[in-house]
Every structure is written in C-alpha cells, then in structure tokens.
Amino acid sequence: MPTVAQTLQERLLNALAALELESGDSAQVVPTADPRNGDYQTSVAMVLAKARRENPRALAGRIAEKIDMAGIGPAPEVAGPGFVNFRLEPEFVAQKLVAVSEDPRLGVEKVANPRTLIVEFSSPNIAKPMHVGHIRSTILGDAIARIARFLGHQVVTDNHLGDWGTQFGKVIYAWKHFRDEAALEAHPMAELVRLYREADLQSKRDAGVLEQCRLELVRLQKGDPENRAIWERCVTLSRREFAAIYKLLGVEFDEQLGESAYDVELPSMVERLLAKGVAEISEGAAVVFDNEISETPFMVRKSDGGFGYATTDVATLEYRVKRWNPDGIWYVVGAPQQLHFKQLFGVARRLGYKVDLEHIAFGSILGEDRKLMRTRSGESVPLRELLEEAIDRAGKLVRDKNPALPDDESGEIAKIVGLGAVKYAELSQHRLTDYVFSWSKMLSFQGNTAPYLQNAYVRSRAIFRRLDSPFRPPDRILLAEPAEQTLGKEILRFGEVVPAVLDGFKPNVLANYLYELAAKYHVFYEQCPVLTAEGETKASRLLLCDLFSRTIKTGLMLLGIEVPERM
RNA sequence: GCGCUCGUAGCUCAGCUGGAUAGAGCAAGGGAUUUCUAAUCCCUGGGUCACAGGUUCGAGUCCUGUCGAGCGCGCCA
Question: What ipTM, to 2 d.p.?
Fold first, then answer.
C-alpha cells in the first residue's frame, strides 16, 4: 500500500512528465510544518526554476495545474516563493484509514530489496558490571534491529562480549590472591567486581602487581589450563547475570560471540595483513597506517606479541563476511570510538571487503550536574540497580494514581512503565547528543515521555472495554470534526515515518512521531466523545481509536517498549 | 598541538538530509472536569539558532574562520 506522500509524488511525477520537465530526485513531497500551508508540499518548482532561469511561482502554477488530484483533494495551491501545497479531502483520508485498518502492518511496506544485516550492540565486558554506559548501546541497537527486521531485512543481532580483554589479567590475579569462595557462591557478580576492583587498585599503586596481572593474561591467552578454567567460570557467571538483565529488558540476540571466539585466527590474520602490505612493523608492533584517517596507527599486534581489540575486530569482520555474506554490518558503539571504527573500516576496504560498514555512534549519559553519570561514591551506576529503581519509582506512581489495581497487576504495570520510561528517554533523544538522566522527567505524565504515550494507549483501550458488543471495523467512515481529520492524517503518516528511521539511524524520529500522534489523540479524545456518539459517527470514532491504539502499540514495540492495558 | 562530536527559549530537548512567521515539554501566569482514566486539554508570556563571513531565490541546517564545551589521540577496550 503506497503512503500518502508516495501517492502524491506519483501524481506530481506524472504532471512533470506531461510538461516534459526533468526533476531528478528533487520531486519530493513532504508533510508541511504548518497546517495553514496544507497537508503536504513540494518545492520542486523552485528547484527547477533555478536551473531553467524561470519565474518559480509561474512554473509552480503550471505544475499545479497539471497535477491530477482526483480522489485525493482539491487542486493544489501555489504559495510563498513557489511552493505547491496539497490538501487532502476528508473522504480520501477516510478511505485510506479503512484500508490501513485492514492491514496488519498498518501501512508500513516492506522494503523492495531486503538486505542481510549484522547489528552488533550491547557488548558488555565479562567480569565487569554492566553499567549505564551499556544501556544506550543495548536499547538503541535493539530498536534499530527491530525496525530493520519489521521492514523486511534479514537481521542478525550479535552481542560482541568483551571476554578476552586485559581485564582478565587483573581478575585472574585477584582470583588467585583474594577470592572469597563463599561470596562467589552467594553473590557471584558482586564478588567478581570486587576482585577486579581490588586488583585494579593494587596495580595502580604497585607496578609489580600490574606486571603480574599482565603475565596472568599472557598465560590465559597461551592456553594455561588453570587460568583457562578460571576464565570459563567467570564467563559463565557473567553471562548468567547478563541474561537476567536482557530478559528484564526484553532484548534477545541471535548470536553472542565473544572476542575469544576469534582468538585462534589472530596470529595468521596479522601475518596476512603484513604479507599484503596493509600492516607494517613499527617500534616492534604490527600496525596499519592510514594518514588520510589519522596519524595514530591501528595496532594489530603489540610489541610483546599480544593482540588487542583492534585485531579482534578485524577477525570478527572477516568471520561475519564469511559466515553470513552480509550487505551491511552495523556497530552500535559510543561516539568516543569513532577513530577506531574509521580505522577498522579503512582496513576492511584495503582488504577488499565491499560490505556497508556503519558506526552507529551515540553520546554519553550525564547526571543532573551535567557530568558523566556516577553514583555518590564516584563509580558508574550498575545497570541492574538503575532498572530496579525505575520499576520501583514507576510502581509508586501507579499505586498512587490507581490504588484500585490488584498488586500483581500493578507490579506488572510498574515494570512496563518503568522500563519504558528509561528506554524512551534514550530513544526520544537524538542519539548523538549527550543526555541528562532525570527520573522526574522520564517518569512524568506530561511531555514527550513513555508514560504519556502509554497513557494515551490506555485511554483508547478503556473505551473498548465499555463497549456492549465486540468492535467490528466499519467498511466506510466519516470524518466530520477537525480533530478527527487531524488524527486520521497523523495515523496515515506511520507508513512514512518507520522507514525513515533507518535513514541516519534515528529512532527519535519514530519517537517524536508517536508523541505527536498521542498528542493528537488526546485532542480528539477531549473533543469527540465516542461511547455517547451514535451511528456512523460512533463507528468512525471507534475505528480511529482502534487504529490509534494499534499504531502506537506497534510503534512502541518497534522501540522495544511495551504498553499496559490499564495503568 | 591534531582529530571527532556539539553549541537552538531560564532549564531539558526537537527541527523530517536547504524551504514559508524556528517548535515541544518543564518552570511562570490564567482557564476547562458530576470524565470514555484530569495521568488530560486550551490560552498567555518567553529567541541576535555561540560569533563573523561565504555559497543562493531561500541557511538553525552546507563551506571557511573565531570563541566555548565534551571526548579521542602506540602497545586499555
């Protein structure tokens, strides 16, 4: 089913062809910013007039005259410096809504050419706590993967676990010297974290400890059985902890291949890079130079013979290409690593890989003091505690506002609202801006927040619970009130917005749309009573409510956010 | 020093790849409710889009420079 913008563009292109005007890709039809200028507009006349040295308004007039608006709306108007403005007649909107209502995809078409895409995100480090720093990657990556999949792409999500890094030198050293087996049984993650911190602290004070940590790492990477056994136990314990968090968040992965999965490939891969002349030896290390990117080398083998994550990332890329032959590999990793990814992609190009590589970068989470978010004691905030606090705070709100709800239901709602608030706070913001974490803002029922959107959904569902007989979508509807028409047109935009999210990887485009949609529903809700209406008016309003609830539920689902039926 | 990402209302942020008089929420003030969940809606005030040039019919958006912030720059990830 074509979107409204596509339908209008088709009519526009026909008109341009009839006038023998070459428009290239300038014949874009977009929604207007201001309803006074109609519903959709195109600036194609101004673009063409420039190239042809014609008067833009006159050309716009000739184009507008040629556009066949039969069944859509009145003749387009020429306005301002040469815009062509389109208005949709209520009957067209009504017919389109009935059609969308019969479509389980709500007017979102699948892409014509599905691609195979690897999306790497979350990527926490084993034996280190998952903290707020990981939440953006997890939530953003999950949303992008969901949307890509919904659009028909073949998506493989991969949690690239940091299970082979230098932190293991410290963990193993501490394991051997300060392990408390009882604590490990009772609170495995807390004990692992304590061990890491202990070794980290001591190695900062004592260079000898640091050296011993390094040696433990070398032993592990050379296959020492004792260290290997310790490592395996750490991995098992950490993965169990991560799995609990992912389950709470509703995030699933197709693969969870850690860095260690590529370890055996590293030595030969570096030799190959050297043989091809991509890498060279410098100061005893194997490095790749690309001065067009940076003077900083990309180090694929340290002078002590060890390998860092740069090497692993090249090997991972090769593995993915071999195994899935993907069209794209998307890395959802923080903005500070931009140089690393530029260099990695540069190496991939020099190795001849044609796959579309994208670093989907994002900014940091700040505390209300505008500095990196920390606990009172200056450490990063453990993710689990943060999520539990979100659920806790949401629970208090729900019980406060709706004390009549049974306990188990209000607990379930608290989870949906609390987690939704955290996720939505991330996703409603442009991914590159550092954002300020604020409980009161994300849990507010006013403004661009998850609870506001969830409440709009709940209000729409409440109507159906009060219906005497089951709702049957009508074959035709009538949109008489301005609030009905405004809401209807906004619902129709869903099919335009969802695909646009992948254009620049901006889930906030979808989030902002859903906010506008909810706001328009609220206006409709205030102005147009449903249950007390009669006949065709009632049927039309019920259809709007039904479509609204399905659209906002689907939209939030694409962001990884659930909706409650009551709250 | 070099590089990356930014700088929009008092605060937190949008701004749909260059379009019309730059928009929301919070905060401030005023109004609407015997409710389909007021957990909402409506109205009012609030701006040199950091600054200076340039590109063009048109710049918050693109290019150059300046100032300011955050981050990154060989053996951490």
Answer: 0.95
